[in-house]
Design goal:
Elements lengths: L1 H21 L1 H6 L8 E2 L22 E5 L7 H13 L4 E5 L1 H11 L4 H6 L3 H15 L2 E4 L3 E3 L11 E5 L5 E8 L4 H8 L11 H8 L2 H12 L6 H12 L22 E3 L1 H4 L7 E3 L9 H10 L1 H43 L2 E4 L2 E4 L2 E6 L6 E6 L4
Parallel strand pairs: 1-8, 2-3, 2-4, 6-8
Antiparallel strand pairs: 4-7, 5-9, 6-7, 10-11, 12-13
Helix pairs in contact: 6-7
């Protein structure tokens, strides 16, 4: 019985370890606040401060935005215009669907099949922003984010993203030098993470959206970026290309400042007079399933506790079933011994021993009977 308990507990522990390991990165996001890499207010010069000119500017002066075509909707034109007007010395690029596909086909043909086969248009809009930052560098801004001040202070960081709630980072405002190792890892992780999770919102978020970016960010920070040869072979196999054509720039962050990804916190992002951006509303791609996800996000502690409770009941149920199986097996074993003993077998130290079974035999015409022992093999 003790051996059975040990086996049962060992199997359950292995299952729990496997499940925790599978979602470890997601679990770490629950306690990640980005403070270790935060861009603090104290290190950002005030708007129009002469100190801005003294800071090195290593990110190219390019503003990237995306839309289906050149006809940006009226409700986003004010936000678009605010960024263009404040940055007359910046190059402005609006990536339409046609231009986006042309870039992928020309510079990243290994990704074209995945790009074309995305089920949601927003997945292509997400993917192209990573590719243009990895390829050209610059600053990407969603069309629903207007500029509240010049972005020059943010050009001093090799790579930056913004903090979002309840956890992780967002992909609506980002900056990078060309070929930064983080964004190289991001674009080369798009194919492995391209999965259909049935619910459109989850599919988008975890294949190309902010949740995907947050997971890659965590892996990158922990130095657990995918092995270059392994990922190159995986991506190459998926697109029918050799691994030598992909995964060239993929590595792991060595802790250097040049490879660091800085985080723009909430007050520096918007809602303050010194914030860089001003939100104008958007997220038009959200479907009905997003309401469920948002509710889950607001009640994640309740859901976590409920999950552990359900897991406890399942464990107890499995333990009860296991106990019943052992009990039934024990009863059958004892029943089998009884049958064998009735047939003339006894249990000895060395195993089962054949016993002589007595029979009655008629010996004369007067119908007398006497005991007769006969040996039978069992």
């Amino acid at each position: 019985m003790r051996r059975g308990i040990l086996i049962f507990c060992s199997i359950n522990i292995l299952i729990i370890i496997f499940l925790i390991r599978s979602v470890l990165t997601l679990l770490t996001l629950l306690v990640e606040d980005g403070s270790a890499d935060a861009i603090h207010s104290s290190e950002i010069p005030a708007p129009n401060s002469p100190l801005i000119d003294d800071r090195p500017q290593i990110i190219p002066k390019i503003i990237h935005q995306t839309y289906i075509n050149e006809s940006v909707p009226e409700h986003w034109r004010e936000a678009q215009k605010s960024c263009i007007d404040l940055h007359e010395d910046y190059e402005y690029r609006l990536w339409t669907d046609a231009k986006s596909r042309e870039l992928i086909a020309t510079e990243y043909p290994w990704f074209l099949a995945t790009f074309d086969n995305y089920s949601q248009p927003i997945q292509r809009a997400d993917a192209i922003r990573y590719f243009v930052l990895a390829h050209y560098g610059g600053i990407y801004i969603d069309l629903d984010d207007g500029c509240n001040r010049r972005l020059d202070p943010l050009l001093s960081y090799p790579s930056w993203v913004r903090r979002t709630k309840p956890t992780g980072i967002s992909n609506d405002a980002m900056g990078s030098i060309p070929h930064h190792p983080f964004f190289t890892l991001v674009i080369e992780s798009l194919i492995p993470y391209n999965r259909d999770w049935k619910l459109p919102y989850i599919t988008v978020m975890y294949s190309t959206g902010p949740l995907f970016l947050s997971v890659i960010w965590q892996e990158y920070k922990r130095g657990r970026g995918r092995n270059m040869a392994e990922l190159g072979a995986q991506v190459g196999g998926a697109v029918g290309a050799g691994p030598g054509n992909v995964g060239k720039g993929l590595g792991r962050w060595d802790g250097s400042e040049s490879g660091r990804v800085r985080v723009l916190m909430g007050d520096e992002y918007n809602q303050k007079p010194w914030s860089f951006f001003r939100w104008h509303g958007g997220s038009s791609w959200h479907g009905k399933d997003a309401r469920l996800i948002f509710w889950m996000g607001r009640h994640w502690m309740l859901l976590t506790a409920t999950g552990f409770l359900i897991a406890g009941f399942v464990g107890l149920g499995l333990w009860w079933i296991y106990g019943r199986v052992l009990l039934i097996g024990e009863r059958r074993r004892k029943g089998g011994q009884g049958n064998m003993l009735g047939a003339g077998c006894v249990a000895g130290k060395g195993g089962w021993v054949v016993q002589r079974i007595p029979f009655l035999r008629r010996t004369s015409a007067k119908e007398r009977y006497e005991l007769f022992e006969s040996r039978h093999d069992v």
